[in-house]
Amino acid sequence: MSDLFSLLWAPFLMCLVLTGLHAYLGLHVIAREVVFVDIALAQIAALGATAAFLLGFELDSWVSYFSGLGATLAGALVLALTRTRERRISQEAVIGVVYAVSAAATVLLVAGAPHGTEHLRTMLVGNILTVSGSEVLKVGLLYAVIGALHWWWRGPLLLISTDAEAAFRAGRRVRLWDFLFYASFGLMVTTSVRIAGVLLVFSYLIVPALAAMALGGSIRRQLGVGWSLGALVSLVGITASAAFDLPTGATVVCVFGLALLAVSAFMRGLMGRR
């Protein structure tokens, strides 16, 4: 039992760190109706890291990290510039194109490279079991800074996410705020993908926020629901992966899916009583 605890305490704490910021930014992403922006930026980060990997730098090196971050910031700029007041072009369609091109470019880069398939698998599901306590602390501090910035900027960011037209009428510099949102979002995603992989990061961002918004209430209440659900799923998923010797990232993603089904069934039952 003590061996199991010594193996899992750091991954579980990292899951709680991921839940803290991802659940909040997930509320923004769903309100903006750009659900796939996370997976698109995550894929761009993976593309940048892959380019560094092919140049001989390990995935956990600073060169790989900044290569992924640079690619993600470029993607954030593209997403901010494609926002128009009239919405002649769906931004979700632009995001889809960005994701498809990034994914295809990553496949092309690793085609024929030694351990290319293993690299792609790591990018998809990560390897959260290998995180250390010092890594949890560093990521926690970084996310605390990003969270503090979002608290400081919460007025314009929440207005743009929930009512962009009102932000335009109020004279807000929407594209600038969009870039700040996507840049800070991209910094979080670049960091998270290195640890947890694209699929797990997407799940932490969308599932808790989706369940919280389905249950409704104030932002504070939705955050409470999202954080509680993320913590519970992390505990169940990590425990199940250890008990049945399953890949941790994939197990947690599947538990997120089951949790969302349970919330959906609860909502149906609640509505059936009315």
Q: What does the model show?
A:
- The protein is mostly helical.
- Helices cover about 85% and strands about 0% of the residues.
- α1 (about 1-30) runs antiparallel to α10 and α9 (about 175-215) packs across α11.
- It starts with a helix and ends with a helix.
* Weakly predicted, low-confidence segments: none
Helix-strand string: HHHHHHHHHHH
Summarize the main sheet. none
Protein structure class: mainly alpha
Summarize the SSE layout with pairings.
Blueprint (H helix, E strand, L loop, with lengths): L1 H30 L5 H18 L7 H20 L9 H20 L5 H10 L7 H20 L1 H9 L1 H6 L4 H42 L3 H26 L3 H26 L1
Helix pairs in contact: 1-6, 1-9, 1-10, 2-3, 2-4, 2-9, 3-9, 5-9, 6-9, 9-10, 9-11, 10-11
Summarize the structure.
The chain has helices spanning 2-31, 37-54, 62-81, 91-110, 116-125, 133-152, 154-162, 164-169, 174-215, 219-244, 248-273. The protein is mainly alpha-helical and 274 residues long.
Tags for this entry?
mainly alpha; globular; 274 residues
